[in-house]
Write a structure and sequence with these properties.
The chain has about 60 residues and is an alpha+beta fold. It contains 1 helix and 6 strands. It has one domain. The protein has a 6-stranded antiparallel beta sheet with strand order 1-2-3-4-5-6.
Length: about 60
């Protein structure tokens, strides 16, 4: 998996040490979040990430080919 992370504005930050590990932005439709990490693009459903923030747990994050 991607490991633990949080969003700070448009930066993806490591939960381990707080350093910036990538960038993040919402999709044009607003239904997904796109994350750039180590030269790779990942996407996740915005509603799924909000559920994780509210309740804890894990979100499904998919790599875009």
């Amino acid at each position: 998996g991607l490991g633990g992370f949080f969003f700070d504005e448009h930066a993806l930050q490591s939960m381990r040490d707080g350093r910036t590990i990538g960038t993040v932005g919402r999709s044009r439709s607003g239904r997904a979040v796109n994350m750039h990490l180590n030269g790779r693009l990942f996407t996740a459903a915005w509603a799924d990430l909000l559920r994780v923030v509210r309740n804890g747990g894990k979100a499904a994050v998919f790599e875009v080919a």
